[in-house]
Amino acid sequence: MSEMVSTTQPRGNTSCFTEQNFNRLLVTMKDKTYPEGTHLFWEGDFSDKLFYVKRGRIKLTKSTDEGKELILYMYGRGDMVGQADPFFSTKHSFTAEVIEDSEIGVIEQKDLEIMICQHCDFAIDFMKWMGIHHRLTQTKFRDLMMYGKPGALCSTLIRLSNTYGEQHGDNILINKKITHTDLSNMIGATRESVNRMLSDLRKKDALEYENGMIVIKDLVMLQDICHCELCPNEICRI
């Protein structure tokens, strides 16, 4: 009899896996702890593993030729991280930095290949997971390139609200302290320009601050600025 998955185990971006196939992942992975400030992998490292976040937080970044860091994704409990190219030797396009002490389940590529070959239903679920990642990347770059920095900022605020948001009446509290520097690194802008854009949104009564955290007061205004396509939450996330 196979080991049962804990019903309290968060699923994050792995919710596309059935319970049986998710259980196969859990049984295969080897647990490892990573202290804050360490890295799961660096840009340019060989991509031969996937990483499942059991505890902690990870950020994926891309470095420009000028040395500026662009934050592309933030991962938490229940998310699987990595560049998924089974059967091919590729290199990571991003760097994965541990921003909280984390417990990570490491899945070797050879074990992943075996599961894909042995279980066709697992292969289908894995293709779904890869599809979600591709859509995430596509929508992220659309937001960064199509509607200017105000559109990219508003899209990022919406993604933050879907990831960390708590409904407070008609408002949404982003229950995670995000600095202006963090926001600038998420959209490839300067901190000064982010300050100006946030100030403009506050003047328009689209958002406010509460104990250092952002409160979205007019979600529709943010959606209009970034031409929101109302993607599902598993795609529209930070």
From TrEMBL:
A GO CC term assigned to this protein in UniProt: cytosol
Identification of the protein by name: Crp/Fnr family transcriptional regulator
Keyword field: Activator, DNA-binding, Transcription, Transcription regulation
Entries under SMART domains matching the protein: cNMP, HTH_CRP
Molecular function per GO: DNA binding; DNA-binding transcription factor activity
Pfam short name (any one): HTH_Crp_2
Domain HTH crp-type: 147-220
InterPro entries for this protein: cNMP-bd_dom, cNMP-bd_dom_sf, Env_Response_Regulators, HTH_CRP, RmlC-like_jellyroll, WH-like_DNA-bd_sf, WH_DNA-bd_sf
Domain Cyclic nucleotide-binding as annotated: residue spans: 17-116
Record bears the keyword Cytoplasm: no
CDD domains: CAP_ED
